[in-house]
Amino acid sequence: MDEKPLGKKPKAAGAKRIALLGILFALAMVLSIVEGFIPVPVPVPGVRLGLANIVVMFALLQLGRRDALGLTLLKAGFVAVTRGAMAGALSLAGGSLAFCVMALVLALAKDKTSYLLLSVSGAVFHNIGQILMASLILRTFLWPYFPVLLLSGIATGFATSVLLKLTAPALQRLHLK
């Protein structure tokens, strides 16, 4: 399989870049909707697989921080519109913190990082961002819930890293050449 190294981003031009971002955002929305129909084996409220984060990771690796951040913000907006303000706030907090940590991991590790490291760190920090936001909104101490979310973040991060590795070649064919 002919994969590009992690973090190598060819420059995208104007309309082609916008079209690619539109396709990626649509894919993230579809994955978010599909994910709602997948039963999570853990009987814990709020645990999701994070399939739409595959698109954000791909954008971060192939397009760069600006485009990945844009998709993160659009994704949070989509969640707010479809699932309400609380879910949107949780998505924004989790997605933003996950994005920052993944961008930092990528910047520090350069081409030595892996899909697994990127995905697990993003998933764990997504959960941390959500706990912080939920604690703020609900004005209650939710940190006892963290061990469950840490374990679920590691498990879902592993799953999304595998799915990214499997789908990256197809996504790269969409990429600007």
Write the layout of secondary structure elements.
Blueprint: H1 14-35, H2 52-62, H3 65-83, H4 85-109, H5 115-138, H6 146-174
- Please state the CA-atom Rg, rounded to the nearest Å: 16 Å
Bulk shape: globular
Order of helices and strands: HHHHHH
Give the number of domains. 1
Q: What share of residues are in beta strands?
A: under 5%
Report the biggest beta sheet as strand number plus sense, adding barrel if it closes: none
> How far apart are the first and last residues' alpha carbons, in Å?
18 Å
Figure out the total of helices. Answer: 6
Average the pLDDT over all residues and give the rounded result.
86
Poorly predicted residue ranges: none
Helix content: over 70%
The CATH class turns out to be: Mainly Alpha
CATH architecture: Orthogonal Bundle
Provide the CATH topology. Answer: Arp2/3 complex 21 kDa subunit ARPC3
Structure keywords:
177 residues, mainly alpha, Arp2/3 complex 21 kDa subunit ARPC3
Brief digest:
Helix content is 73%, strand content 0%.
Description:
The protein is mainly alpha-helical. The protein has one domain (14-174): Orthogonal Bundle (Arp2/3 complex 21 kDa subunit ARPC3). Helices cover 73% and strands 0% of the residues. It contains six helices and no strands. It has helices at residues 14-35, 52-62, 65-83, 85-109, 115-138, 146-174. Helix 1 crosses helix 3, helix 2 (52-62) packs antiparallel against helix 3 and helix 5 (115-138) crosses helix 6 (146-174). The longest helix has 29 residues, at 146-174. It is globular and about 45 Å long. The mean pLDDT is 86.
